[in-house]
Amino acid sequence: MAIIPLLSGTHVATILAPVLVSVAIMNSLISVLRPDISDRENRIKPISAGEMKTDYDFIVVGGGGAGAVVANRLSEIDKWSVLLLEAGPDEPEICDVPFAYNFLQGTPLDWQFKPEPSNASCLAMKNHQCTWPRGKALGGTTILNGMMYSRGNKKDYDYWAAQGNPGWEHDSIFKYFKKSEDMRIDEFKGSSYHSTGGGLSIEHYRYRTPITNHLVNAGTEMGYEILDANAGKQSGFMISHSFLRDGLRCSTAKGFLRPASKRENLHVGVLSMVEKILIRTGEYY
Length: 285
What we know:
Layout: E1 3-5, H1 9-33, H2 35-38, E2 58-61, H3 67-75, E3 82-85, H4 101-104, E4 113-115, H5 154-162, H6 170-179, E5 181-183, E6 200-203, H7 210-221, E7 242-245, E8 248-249, H8 252-257, E9 266-269
Parallel strand pairs: 2-3, 3-9, 5-6
Antiparallel strand pairs: 1-4, 6-7, 7-8
């Protein structure tokens, strides 16, 4: 899919200025009133360009949903040196507030992408273009999405494997879903499809509008089951699982980078744009 920038220049500044001021104020209030959210003790301490080594065993480009996990897993091996480079900053405190994602999308914490116009999608949108929020900070899109935890369908992974990617079939990667998960919803803790102790905490939202239960119950009137859509069957209704920890957002930065923040073999550079990757074949220097 080809991607073009969403907005630019003066137009962006005019639209976003009030939002950015509000976000800055809320961020400051959180820092003062909720030091537990600020979590200064465990947050990543980024290094400057001058502090970076000339060589690393692994360089991970992008500290988002995948990069944060990869950097954590690689740096578990003490003898390996790992550098994680992220184009954006550390995730601001405001990201922890679930409702704030409405304000964060379209800000400098978002890459502000739009798909190319299409006659097959986004038909209700101007020029047939939807917004495509992508996070630009440690944690990537997990800092500004709707936090819904929804696994892909088993057949998707089996199809990837059938296309010549051994090891990607669902039965092979299922253990990694569970390894990353910290299920905190009591009714699912004993399920063979879930696990506890992983980096990403799974909860229900603390607040639920009254209509939510009516919508789920309406599903049963249409003949659907109330089930766990992250288990063996995905056709049905449920109260969604969400990436939350104690009612607050649980991004991959919180779930995987902060626990690794004290590792001496993990360096993290923020506001670090990677423009080119040079692959040297043959002899290594």
